[in-house]
Amino acid sequence: MKLFRTPSAFSGALTAAAAIFTVAAFAGGLLYLDRKMGRPIVETTTSSVSTGLLPDEADIRRILVDRIDAQRQSVGIVVGTIGPNGRNIVAHGSFGGLDPRPVDGDTIFEIGSVTKVFTGLLLADMAERGEVALADPVAKYLPMNVAVPERGGKAITLADLATNTSGLPRMPDNFEPTDETNPYADYTIDEMYAFVSGYKLPRDIGTEYEYSNLGSALLGQALAGRAGKDYAALVQERIAGPLAMRSTTIELNPPLNKHMATGHNEVLEIVPNWDLPAFAAAGALRSSANDLLELFQLTLNKDRTPLATALAGTLATRRAIGEQETSAALGWVVTKSSNGEIAWQDGGTGGYSAFIGFHPGLRTAVIVLSNANTGVSDIGLHLLNREIPLTRVKPRHTEVSVDPKLFDTYVGRYQLAPDVILTIMREDDVLFAQFPGQSKLRLFAEGEHRFFYKEVEAAITFAAPAADRSPSLVLHRFGRDMAAPRLSD
After folding, report:
1. Helix axes 213-227, 189-198, angle to 10 degrees
2. What is the torsional sign of CA 407, 409, 411, 414?
3. Nearest to 114 by CA among 386, 322, 437, 358
4. Is residue 313 a contact partner of residue 263, using CB atoms and an 8 Å limit?
5. How far is 146 from 149, CA to CA, in rounded Å?
6. What is the Cα–Cα distance from 462 to 442, expressed in whole angstroms?
7. What is the C-alpha to C-alpha distance for residues 444 and 399, in angstroms, rounded to an integer?
């Protein structure tokens, strides 16, 4: 893919939108490591954290006040919760820009990749109706001139796309925005079809997870083609209309536009909204907390409606994400935690962050929407399980140049827990770290012995080399320092 030198609005949003798997897998890996170490990575100060009870309004408000007023990580945040004891909205902050109005449950935000949950639900609903089958080749519902790649005699299916196991890349390499502040606006469906038709799959279909905005976009085009209408109309007909989600759409009419919060980048500068015509099913929807709570009301209703059955069906199909206790469902990431499974998805655009998640077993759900591209997933996961810690302001790392020959002293395997090994590897003049079953992540030097991640908030310090080998490292994450000795070669 072309590398961009871009303003913070684009670079920050592209990282948030493109690296969801990185965050999900890293978080899942640390929860797994948490249990292997026999203690939480961060001690919690909240009692009875595993009861499944959602925090009360005062606790949530304290989190939002800290995030906005103290940490300066957003302008306005809305949290929606729902469970057996009812639903609640807690909000803090404003619309932003020159609009001092306070945000509330009806304020509309871009939800980015949370759109993928709607795409997964559409797939499950259409499968339940018999209109499609999860095992159908996606080519069946695309124009005949689209040559979807195959490998080993196997075709990419709808389920492969929904679980990010199709073998398609995160983004097409012909994605070259002319407006970096609205990067998807001029990318066309024809360009997407042209890339897909010429792409050669690098591995067997269904064998490995790779987060793919392209795959979700292609799935949305296929479902819309099968229904004979565009993606926005299909969402309205099958989900937003039946659930009376009046603020959930792609294009806002004038009355709804009055409820749209202003977007801000990671340093709280005002940025434009995004348009994603070809990638609609991957991240184009806008919604409000009240609307999104209607989606989870399905899990509480005693009447088993067809849409409730479809929502349950989105979790029935699972594909493993590496070897950790995290899997991909239809539009969801499913992570095992100390109080049960959490199904969740997050999203980020140039000026917004979003999170939705729920406990299928406990029948509780959380929505978090922000009008800044700074991430809110930690808030959502923490509210669902208070053993999952909140993050603080990401430290400002400064990348420095070091002699790549030093990397050879760090290459090796380091044991963080009895069966959790962190592998450090070098490729040319670049250093990488990899948890078991996860993608390798690049490490950036801020000193001869200390390195940091850009995709996640973590750092590694290597012990000074002895006999040309570093004897140990320390992983810095969640405010804790986790030592790991080097294993014998």
Report:
1. 110
2. negative
3. 358
4. no
5. 9
6. 15
7. 6
Distance CA 320, CA 326 (A): 7
308-325 tens-digit pLDDT: 999 999 999 999 987 667
> At 62, is the secondary structure helix, strand, or coil?
helix
CA 344, distance to chain mean position in Å, is: 8
3-state helix, strand, coil in the chain (%, to 5): 30, 25, 45
Cβ pair 327, 320 in contact under 8 A: yes
Tokens of 109: 């935000």
The span from the CA of 299 to the CA of 320, in Å, is 24
User: Measuring CA to CA, which residue among 63, 69, 70, 71 is closest to residue 94?
Assistant: 69
Residue 383 to residue 376: CA distance in whole angstroms: 11
Q: Across-strand partners of 435?
A: none
Spell out the alpha helix ranges (H) of 43-188. Answer: 57-65, 115-128, 158-162
**Cα 188 to chain centroid, rounded:** 24
Q: Among residues 291, 3, 264, 329, which one has the least CA distance to residue 134?
A: 329
Q: Which residues contact 488 (CB under 8 A, 6 or more apart)?
A: none
109, 367, 374 from 287: Cα distances, Å? 6, 11, 18
Tokens at residue 217, please? 């976009």
Beta strand extents in 268-398 (DSSP E only): 286-287, 319-320, 326-328, 333-337, 340-348, 353-359, 364-370
pTM of the predicted structure, to 2 decimals: 0.79
CA angle at 152 for the pair 148 and 156, rounded to the nearest 5°: 35
Dihedral angle, C-alpha 226, 279, 237, 360, nearest 10 °: 100
Distance CA 253, CA 245 (A): 14
State the virtual CA torsion across 145, 151, 154, 155 in degrees, nearest 10. Answer: -30
Each residue's pLDDT tens digit, 33-79: 444 443 333 333 333 344 557 999 999 999 999 999 999 999 999 99
The C-alpha angle with vertex 336 and arms to 331 and 337, in degrees rounded to 5, equals: 125
| pLDDT level of residue 23 (50, 70, 90 thresholds) | very low
Contact 36, 418 (CB under 8 A): yes
CB 376 within 8 A of CB 66: no
Report how far residue 305's alpha carbon sits from residue 212's, in angstroms, rounded to the nearest whole number: 31
Which alpha helices (DSSP H) does 38-112 contain, by range? 57-65
